[in-house]
Write a structure and sequence with these properties.
The structure is a single chain. It is globular, with a radius of gyration of 19 Å. Helix 1 runs antiparallel to helix 4 and helix 3 packs antiparallel against helix 5. It is built from five helices and seven strands; from the N terminus they run αβααββαββββα. It is of the alpha+beta class and 237 residues long. The chain has a single domain, classed as DD-peptidase/beta-lactamase superfamily (Beta-lactamase), CATH 3.40.710.10. The chain starts with a helix and ends in a 9-residue tail after the last helix. 25% of the residues lie in helices and 21% in strands.
């Protein structure tokens, strides 16, 4: 591998590593542990200074469980801007046991982060060309021609009403100007996500267990985001 490819590869690893490291942090600290940051994250790295970690706000973001909409939640925050972790609610409905701090969780579409990282590494090593059709490398691959399931992302004429790639890596901005990157993922009974600032000074991994498929658990996701980074500004298309 030449030096240029090596630099590109490690730049790719650093960027995608934000969410990968957040996932790996799932067993890094005991529940309710709070570690203050040695110094505020710089505005240049995050878009704006990050808010300090407030244990009261963080616990309130996942508190009050179980209820009719969500049975349990896990939140872990790591990085040089501070550490915090805790769980809430019930992890086993049969025994009533609480959510363990080292609980396993289903990541759903968060798996796309791993796929994207490997593809970009292969591109950096000149083993694939991102401008060539995927069929050159996977001759039997075809895009399934099936209806889109109520997706607001498939908007082009060619894709209208049909399945398409609905969402990749997300970039969101908090009301205080902090910019974070990450990915959400859902499976029946699980809504999870990993997000981080570009400099990895704050990385979060969360998972909540909804009891239905109508999206009522999203208020908890919004509360987690607000307590971790600041209130998220709605995206305008």
């Amino acid at each position: 591998m030449n030096s240029s490819a090596a630099r590109t590869r490690w730049s790719t690893v650093a960027a995608s590593g934000a969410v990968l490291v957040a996932l790996a942090a799932g067993t890094a600290a005991p529940a309710s542990a709070v570690t203050p940051a040695p110094a505020p994250a710089t505005a240049a790295a995050t878009g704006a200074p990050l808010p300090g970690l407030d244990p009261v706000k963080l616990q309130a973001a996942i508190g009050g469980l179980p209820n009719a909409d969500v049975t349990g939640a896990l939140l872990r925050i790591t990085g040089s801007a501070g550490h915090w972790s805790d769980t809430s609610g019930v992890g086993d409905l049969e025994t009533g046991e609480g959510v363990p701090p080292d609980a396993h969780l289903r990541i759903g579409s968060v798996s796309k982060v791993f796929t994207a990282t490997v593809v970009l590494q292969l591109a950096a090593e000149h083993r694939i060309d991102l401008d060539r059709p995927v069929q050159q490398y996977l001759p039997l691959f075809t895009v399934p021609d099936v209806p889109s399931f109520h997706s607001s992302q498939c908007r082009t004429v060619a894709d209208a009403g049909r399945a398409c790639m609905t969402m990749g890596i997300m970039r969101v901005t908090a009301s205080n100007g902090a910019v974070v990157w990450g990915k959400t993922g859902s499976r029946p009974g699980w809504t999870s996500g990993v997000f981080a600032t570009r400099d990895l000074s704050r990385k979060i991994v969360y998972s909540v267990n909804p009891t239905n498929l109508d999206g009522t658990e999203m208020r908890y996701v919004q509360q987690i985001a607000a307590a971790s980074f600041g209130t998220v500004v709605p995206t305008r298309n």
